[in-house]
Amino acid sequence: MQKFPNKNLSDLYKLFGESCANEFHGSSKIKLYYILDANNRVRWAFPSNLKTPSFLNTFNSSSIKAYLYIAVCKILFKIKLKFMLSSGSIVVYYDPSKCFLKDLLNDHLINEHFSIFFGTYGDDRKLIIEFNDGISNESIGFIKIPLSERSKKLITNESKNLEILSCKKPLKSLLDFPELRPSRSYEALLIPNIFKDHSIIPKYSMLTPIIDLHNISYEVVTFSNFFEKKVLNNLDTLRVNKIFFNDVSEIKSNQIKDLCTNIVKSLKGLNNLYGKDELVRTSFAHKDFTPWNCRITSNKLSVIDWERADKETSHFFDVCHYIFQNEILVKQNFDTDDIKSKIMFSLKNFNALLGLKLNNKDLEFYFYCFLIDHISTRVELVSKSTEWFPQIDWQLNVWNNMLLNIATQKNTYKL
User: pLDDT digit string (tens) for 31-47?
Assistant: First the structure.
């Protein structure tokens, strides 16, 4: 049986069928170029006849390097040298009457007006199918296809969250989000494209509309209840000794385990950070609010990927998350003092803008609540991942240093 040249291309079996690597009687075929990332994993695949690099609409274009890459892609497509972008090509065969992707895309597959984003590698990875009109560089919409039980739950959660948002008409004046569209498959989520070519990535000062999510739900809980839900419930079942990553040395794997052990220990020690009866304002939040999940379009903040949205999240979570992830994953800034300073500066601005009259200690409190929630959730995800990538190291080191700084500053417990 023929095999694909890269193991990650085996995800195509889900889209085209189990025989897609081999020609068979009555099969249709399509030639795909694929592009690998820096870790030799497939990032995109697209038909050889694709007219414009519409796959870039699933690309995080928030850095200068990314803008240069986009420019090169557009030039090579325009002068019909798109093959120079690719890491290789494959021919995929499928039965039109049984092909899962044919059922989802219909004429977009036949006319080769689509591309495939292989997702962010990890336990909750999904395939993202982008489809377009074949003329412009603008995507019509996207289809999310889960690759694990965890990603199925996330897609189900996103469907529920989009239904909640659709009932909140006032939000639409400043905040734009996808309208849920019916899919031909219970396993897939179909959403229209709300990002346009003229949209821009928002600066920190443009994030105000995300605060309006606080109005969807509002509750006040004690810090002890908040801590139990966000930390203890997440980490009590975590077994650091079972963390395993493919394709890394035993020394590297042990280093990751040691970091995770320190982080879990530090997190659990934060139960004395504030008084048990200290009150935490919680509300609805996106919880994955990042530069690659939002744009400014027609004077609105357009936001996608509502998979992790939750109604029991501490105030200002999304603002903290946007800056935190942008500094680490985009700017590769690992200076914890600098990251905290930028977040606190933005929180002070939002506090003044919204007239909340919170003092610096209150704002720092909500920054720490963000760290507790974010790190406990993410370290649990790391513990279940088998794929290692550099961003894991970046985040683990920043999380560990952040928690050590809190412990030193507050002097509330011994490590």
Answer: 999 999 888 889 999 99
